[in-house]
């Protein structure tokens, strides 16, 4: 019995000793006091040590896009870490290509600023700002899609390019520990500088879309930041196809309104894919662009119309509909917005038909 | 039951609000290692392996995703359709790769039985033998899953 007690005592003592070593090592080796952060060759600034780089940047009102709120799931918050940052973490590797790892690209949400750190971020991100907005209107477009109009404060003019997106900060609700950010394309035209409209589909069990669809009310205040993204119309002579699925119509509504406002002439066909009639919206508005934009045509299509839909339009998967409408597509441009599955399927069809890969545009957050 | 540190890290990523709003553990208070061992035993008692169940579920998932939200009938036995969202999901175990954010709704045409799962669910079963915790929205009870897929009482050699 005494031997057992001695052995237990030795084990407990050894465990306590090892724990002490770990505590001392962490205090000595892990820097958690103020550190210096250098951004794009600007003068270094002092920031608190030990925080995720994404949070440190956000504190300084520098908004690197992140659609998952720093959970390491979207892979959007890529920055080049030139000094500090430690090794690439297993949580980052799924999002990084080998040449990005070679080029010291990291996910800002996963990098802890423990030591003096130097980073490089695209200059245009320094222009992104945070805004407090008021929910001015909510419109039910379908059973699971809402249009939300967010008004900026007096005197604020929000400048963006048609096709870009903003991030909504979803406040803490339902026991969630921290706000999360989600990206949504702007559907209103850039000429409307006092507000932005977003088209938001309810995602099953989605953090932000549940908030928008179940809790958000007219008059509520929200924080958004933006604008982001390089999904915009290339004003070339090339004919273009726009392909949208579900709420993916949003950036095209902005681009078409902008084209009409500025008199941009370009041959464009907008394909809008949905499952059944109840998934379609804004049809009249989109058909009306046929009068305002020479060279514009609109093709809504249903993949599985309900018997009661009385649908006389195109049917089939949107990829098949595009393929039926166009023969060879060399020299054309394609703009895609929808689910990753729709985008992947469209890219396959478009490249098979001769559209150059660098002429196919879509948002990375999809 | 002692749990390796890697599983503890994975369990932390499975919590409510960590990677997803609902997380992966539901109301299950057991350690991840216990959940894995319990479900592993149940699948073995069915005479199946996790890979068998995942392969059958993957086939239905691929068909649903390929039809971009429209329902599709497979083998005159299953009707499946996907509800896809923008974005992709990482594996909470830290496995490489990202998974399409979608729900797949499956229905047996002969029995009317329904099941909902995600592309990530398929990976979690096949690669990790993880069917999610009790009370998780996407928990798949192994016996119910095998029954839905028509694999009850079949050894791997009988599964096509």
What is the CA-CA span between the terminal residues of chain B? Answer: 36 Å
Quaternary organization: heterodimer
* Overall domain count of chain B: 1
Number of strands of chain B: 4
How many helices of chain A does DSSP assign? 8
Order of helices and strands of chain B: HHHEEEEHH
Helix content of chain B: 25-40%
Mean pLDDT of chain B: 91
Which regions of chain A have little confidence, pLDDT < 50, spanning 5+ residues?
A: 22-28
CATH class of the largest domain in chain A: Alpha Beta
Beta-strand fraction estimate of chain A: 25-35%
**Unreliably modeled segments of chain B:** none
Number of domains of chain A: 3
**Biggest sheet details of chain A:** 6 strands, antiparallel
Across the major sheet of chain A, the strand order is 11-10-13-8-9-12
Describe the global form of chain A: globular
> How far is the N terminus from the C terminus of chain A?
65 Å
Approximate strand percentage of chain B: 15-25%
Q: What is the β-strand count of chain A?
A: 19
CATH topology of the largest domain in chain A: Rossmann fold
User: How many helical stretches of chain B?
Assistant: 5
Report on this model:
The complex is a heterodimer of chains A (366) and B (160). Chain A has three domains: 35-124, Ubiquitin-like (UB roll), CATH 3.10.20.30; 128-228, Elongation Factor Tu (Ef-tu), domain 3 (Beta Barrel); 240-362, 3-Layer(aba) Sandwich (Rossmann fold), CATH 3.40.50. Helix content of chain A is 25%, strand content 28%. Chain A has helices at residues 2-29, 53-59, 98-102, 207-214, 250-262, 283-292, 318-325, 340-352; strands at residues 35-39, 45-47, 51-52, 78-83, 105-107, 112-113, 117-120, 129-140, 145-151, 165-170, 180-185, 195-201, 221-228, 240-245, 268-274, 296-302, 314-315, 333-337, 360-362. In chain A, β1 (35-39) and β2 form a beta hairpin. Chain A is globular. The N and C termini of chain A lie far apart (65 Å). In chain B, α3 runs antiparallel to α4. Chain B has a four-stranded antiparallel β-sheet. Chain B has one domain (5-154). Chain B has five helices and four strands. The N and C termini of chain B lie far apart (36 Å). With 160 residues, chain B is of the alpha+beta class. Classes of the chains: A alpha/beta (366), B alpha+beta (160). Chain A binds chain B through residues 67-68, 71-75, 90-91, 93-95, 174-178, 201, 203-207, 209-210, 245-246, 248, 273-275, 303-304, 317-319, 338-342, 345, 365-366, and chain B through 16-22, 65-71, 82-91, 94-98, 100-103, 137.
């Amino acid at each position: 019995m005494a031997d057992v007690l001695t052995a237990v005592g030795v084990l407990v003592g050894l465990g306590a000793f090892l724990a002490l070593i770990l505590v001392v090592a962490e205090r000595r080796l892990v820097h958690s006091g103020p550190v210096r952060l250098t951004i794009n060759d600007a003068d270094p600034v002092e920031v608190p040590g030990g925080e995720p780089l994404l949070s440190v940047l956000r504190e300084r009102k520098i908004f690197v896009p992140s659609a998952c709120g720093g959970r390491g799931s979207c892979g959007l918050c890529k920055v080049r870490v030139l000094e500090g940052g430690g090794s690439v973490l297993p949580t980052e590797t799924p999002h990084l290509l080998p040449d990005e790892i070679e080029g010291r690209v990291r996910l800002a949400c996963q990098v802890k600023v423990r030591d003096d750190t130097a980073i490089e971020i695209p200059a245009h991100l320094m222009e992104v700002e945070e805004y407090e907005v008021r929910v001015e209107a909510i419109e039910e477009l379908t059973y699971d899609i809402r249009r939300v109009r967010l008004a900026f404060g007096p005197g604020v003019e929000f400048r963006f390019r048609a096709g870009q997106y903003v991030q909504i900060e979803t406040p803490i609700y339902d026991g969630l520990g921290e706000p999360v950010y989600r990206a949504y394309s702007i559907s209103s035209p850039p000429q409307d500088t006092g507000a932005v409209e977003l088209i938001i589909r309810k995602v099953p069990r989605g953090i932000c879309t549940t908030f928008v669809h179940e809790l958000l009310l007219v008059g509520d205040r929200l924080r958004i930041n933006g604008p982001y993204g390089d999904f915009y119309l290339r004003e070339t002579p090339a004919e273009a196809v726009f392909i949208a699925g579900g709420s993916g119509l949003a950036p095209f509504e902005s681009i078409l309104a902008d084209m009409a406002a500025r008199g941009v002439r370009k041959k464009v066909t907008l394909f809008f894919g949905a499952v059944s009639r109840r998934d379609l919206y804004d049809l009249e508005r989109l058909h009306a662009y046929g009068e305002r934009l020479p060279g514009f045509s609109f093709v809504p299509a249903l993949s599985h119309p309900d018997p009661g839909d009385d649908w006389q339009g195109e049917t089939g998967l949107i990829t098949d509909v595009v393929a039926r409408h166009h023969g060879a597509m060399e020299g054309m441009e394609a703009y895609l917005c929808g689910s990753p599955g729709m985008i992947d399927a469209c890219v396959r069809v478009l490249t098979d038909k001769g559209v150059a890969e660098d002429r196919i545009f879509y948002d990375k957050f999809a | 039951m002692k749990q390796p540190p890697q599983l503890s890290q994975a369990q932390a990523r499975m919590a409510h609000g960590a990677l997803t709003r609902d997380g992966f553990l539901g109301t299950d208070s057991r350690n991840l290692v216990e959940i894995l061992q319990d479900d592993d035993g149940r699948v073995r008692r069915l005479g199946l392996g996790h890979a068998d169940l995942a392969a059958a579920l993957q086939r239905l998932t691929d068909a649903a995703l390929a039809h971009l939200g429209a329902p599709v009938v497979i083998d005159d036995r299953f009707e499946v359709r996907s509800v896809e969202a923008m974005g992709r999901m990482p594996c909470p175990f830290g496995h490489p790769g990202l998974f399409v954010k979608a729900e797949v709704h499956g229905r047996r045409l002969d029995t009317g039985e329904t099941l909902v799962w995600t592309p990530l669910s398929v990976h979690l079963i096949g690669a990790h033998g993880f069917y999610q915790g009790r009370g998780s929205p996407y928990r798949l009870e192994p016996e119910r899953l095998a029954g839905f897929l028509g694999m009850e009482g079949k050894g791997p050699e009988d599964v096509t």
